Amino acid sequence: MTRETTHLRLGVNIDHVATLRNARGGADPDPARAAMLAQSAGADGITLHLREDRRHIRDADLPAVMDAVQIPINLEMAATQEMQAIALAHRPHAVCLGPERREERTTEGGLNVAADANRLRDYITPLRAAGARVSLFIAPDEAQVEASARVGAQVVELHVGAYAEFCAAGDDAARDTELRKLFAAAALAQELGLEVHAGHGLNFANVGPIAAIPELVELNIGHFLIGEAVFVGLEAAIREMRRQMNLARL
Ligand code: PXP
Questions:
Q1: How far is the CA of 108 from the centre of ligand 1 (A)?
Q2: What is the pLDDT of residue 166?
Q3: CB under 8 A, 24+ apart: contacts of 86-93
Q4: Which residues constitute the domain of residue 35?
Q5: Per the confidence metrics, is the pTM higher than 0.85?
């Protein structure tokens, strides 16, 4: 196989650098600096999630991060009119649409594409026309994968949060059931012409079996890497994640 088919891209999500900054209300630590460091540590892309409540990334962070790096930017956002206008104004390389509830601590569950297909089709059209690669953050579920293809997404990002929770709980049977769902969803997505990404809750202990899913071309990883950076530095944390991902692909 060529490198194109085996290289698994690592998108580094820098949201929680902004979480730390916002805790004090000043300018440090700077998410754009984190993006530059991630780039020099070998990240293939930078992911940032502009939430409706601006709890971490803020509007000004998007152009600052886009200016700071040359690698592709993946903007995660809810499918609202406000966010669509921001994406169209800044034109990041990719837009990942996910569900968002104010009361949740992080993105819980995937987008219900099947239930919102007509609206999402209309929502995606101008984003694609502006050149963005549109990704939908979904549970590893056949109906959601099929609906994603129907509404015109180019990419699906499979939510691996349930898998990560079962790993943390030491529930091997539930973890394996979830892994089987992820393998099946990835295969179906590729069959339908979708590029397949995955993310949420990945860390050094659980990334291997996910990185081994052959159809995956990108993982987006944030919270664990930023936490690990407190102990070993951001570059070292990213390099180790890269190493673990490569090992799974040998
Ligand atoms: N991918 C998507 C679509 C997400 O919403 C998130 C969390 O913002 C991530 C990846 C990264 O998850 P984590 O921070 O748990 O690594």
A1: 10
A2: 98
A3: 86/50, 86/59, 86/62, 87/127, 87/130, 87/132, 88/126, 88/127, 88/130, 90/62, 90/63, 90/66, 91/130, 91/131, 91/132, 92/62, 92/66, 92/132, 93/45, 93/132, 93/133
A4: 9-248
A5: yes
